[in-house]
């Protein structure tokens, strides 16, 4: 493991196994309010200074780190260690106060993920093991395939014990997705003696995979995976015609490991009115993660380097989260270590995850829930953050759409404790619509990022146009907020702090917004 070289952080100490301790800045400790300053001056300087070429150099570094570390940069792996070292070294050289925050997490890595129909038809399947599925023995299992009637004849396939008529003991059960959780289908299969479950998709596109999860590790009883609808329908037709045999091997390494967040903040600025920006640095175990989320990490790094010599009114704190791909664990840990007063010292949180998808859209997190989709509005101030991004994009003649706070990225833990949040996103595995093509160009019916969570998420998976546009918007927003957060939280005075406290307590934000388990994994 590389040894991180960090500067001394005044008013911050490391305690107990690398836990980050942030000093509380009371109103008496805070610097006096600065004279009114035009916030656009710093914002404009940063927009000009942050260039795609500079960001791309950081992306090249992350690609080469992955190349020399088994092609991945997943949390706790040598590729992530080297990535974190690269970030920390750059920040330290620029004069930042840098700290490493260690935490333990449940690491998983897929070792085997194969399924084949061996008779009567030789057919190779494309399973995706569900999170919390138990392993098959090494070498896999071969068993008869049985099928539960699908949506064509049953609106709730595999959701009731009565769906399992006949003998299922010792078989691998084929069940269509829909109407209830994967866990419920799994439990019903366990009850009739099945040795495995294949859940096939109900999506319109026959090749779309199922990225699913069971409830938790204790709930997984038999190996369970998802397969595309086209493969499932072909298997169901074979079962209807006669006996079918399937070979299934699903094995995942699971162990407790230690990883770390990299956190840096400006030396100047008010410590009781911190502007915080975050991007997860880790990749999945399947690839180098250059768009997801090298793009956000590299853009944030370049912005931090360009901000280093600038005078700020409000302290700016940057975080490169780890273990996001295992369920937002780095950001969750960070927030869990903050007292309520320390939470109040954070004026707002900005999140940048996947900002250069090849078939991109320009999505801005919907702080006011004006789209009326999904989880509802963010905490007070989130709408104003959204306005900063949308007004900048409007000024550049760039179309944009809202995107829901759906809990799939690191804003989740901040929203859960009432911290105003926002950010940018260019899309992941969802397919682009004709309406979105009309707004952003690109190709309809193709995912925003066809290499999402795959080995092909490499340097060639970056859309430089999207990267440049989003990096400029990020620079603009952080430049504005580093100078003035009054649009989000008033003047940042003690009265404003008290108002924010009251708003949090009255609103009663809870962790329901934080998705448990790996982002992108569905439960049903």
UniProtKB/TrEMBL annotation:
The keyword Zinc applies. Transmembrane segments: none annotated. Residues 141-235 form the PA domain. Keywords: Aminopeptidase, Hydrolase, Metal-binding, Protease, Signal, Zinc. One of its GO terms (molecular function) is metalloexopeptidase activity. It holds the Pfam family Peptidase_M28. Its cofactor is Zn(2+). Residues 261-475 form the Peptidase M28 domain. GO terms for biological process: proteolysis. Gene3D superfamilies: 3.50.30.30, Zn peptidases. Residues 1-30 form the signal peptide. InterPro entries: M28_fam (IPR045175), M28_SGAP-like (IPR041756), PA_dom_sf (IPR046450), PA_domain (IPR003137), Peptidase_M28 (IPR007484). Belongs to the peptidase M28 family. M28A subfamily. This is Amidohydrolase. It comes from Rugosimonospora africana. The lineage of its organism: Bacteria, Bacillati, Actinomycetota, Actinomycetes, Micromonosporales.
């Amino acid at each position: 493991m590389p040894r991180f070289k960090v500067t001394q952080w005044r008013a911050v100490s490391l305690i107990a196994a690398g836990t980050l301790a942030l000093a509380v800045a009371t109103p008496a400790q805070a610097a006096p309010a600065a004279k009114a300053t035009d916030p656009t001056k710093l914002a404009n300087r940063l927009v000009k200074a942050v260039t795609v070429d500079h960001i791309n150099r950081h992306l090249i570094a992350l690609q080469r780190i992955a190349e020399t570390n088994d092609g991945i940069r997943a949390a706790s792996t040598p590729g992530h260690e080297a990535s974190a070292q690269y970030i920390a070294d750059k920040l330290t050289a620029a004069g930042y106060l840098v700290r490493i925050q260690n935490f333990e997490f449940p690491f998983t890595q897929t070792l085997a993920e194969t399924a084949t129909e061996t008779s009567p038809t030789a057919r190779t399947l494309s399973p995706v093991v569900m999170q919390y599925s138990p392993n098959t023995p090494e070498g896999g299992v071969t068993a008869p395939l049985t099928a539960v009637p699908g949506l064509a004849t049953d609106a709730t396939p595999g959701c009731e014990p009565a769906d399992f008529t006949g003998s299922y003991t010792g078989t691998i059960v084929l069940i269509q997705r829909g109407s209830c959780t994967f866990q419920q289908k799994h439990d019903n299969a366990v009850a009739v003696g099945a040795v495995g479950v294949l859940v096939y998709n109900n999506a319109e596109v026959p090749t779309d995979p199922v990225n699913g999860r069971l409830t938790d590790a204790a709930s997984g009883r038999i190996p369970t995976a998802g397969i595309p609808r086209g493969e499932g329908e072909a298997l169901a037709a074979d079962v209807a015609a006669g006996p079918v045999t399937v070979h299934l091997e699903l094995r995942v390494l699971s162990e407790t490991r230690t990883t770390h967040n990299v956190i840096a903040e400006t030396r100047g600025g008010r410590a009781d009115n911190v502007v915080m920006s975050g991007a997860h640095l880790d990749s999945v175990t399947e690839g180098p993660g250059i768009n997801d989320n090298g793009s956000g990490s590299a853009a944030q790094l370049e912005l931090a380097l360009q901000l280093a010599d600038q005078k700020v009114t409000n302290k700016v704190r940057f975080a490169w989260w780890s273990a996001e791909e295992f369920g937002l664990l780095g950001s969750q840990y960070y927030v869990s270590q903050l007292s309520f007063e320390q939470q109040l010292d954070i004026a707002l949180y900005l999140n940048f995850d996947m900002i250069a998808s090849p078939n991109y859209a320009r999505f801005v997190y919907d702080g006011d829930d004006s789209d009326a989709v999904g989880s509802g509005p963010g905490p007070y101030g989130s709408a104003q953050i959204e306005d900063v991004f949308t007004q900048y994009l409007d000024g550049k003649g760039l179309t944009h759409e809202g995107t829901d706070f759906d809990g799939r990225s690191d804003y989740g833990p901040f929203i859960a404790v009432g911290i105003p949040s926002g950010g940018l996103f260019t899309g992941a595995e969802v397919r682009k619509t004709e309406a979105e093509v009309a707004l952003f160009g690109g190709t309809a019916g193709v995912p925003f990022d066809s290499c999402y969570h795959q080995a092909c998420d490499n340097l060639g998976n970056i859309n430089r146009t999207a990267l440049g546009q989003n990096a400029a918007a990020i620079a603009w927003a952080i430049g504005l907020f580093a100078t003035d957060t009054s649009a989000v939280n008033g003047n940042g005075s003690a009265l404003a702090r008290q108002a924010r406290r009251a708003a949090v307590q009255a609103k009663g934000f809870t962790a329901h917004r934080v998705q448990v388990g790996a982002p992108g994994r569905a439960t049903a």
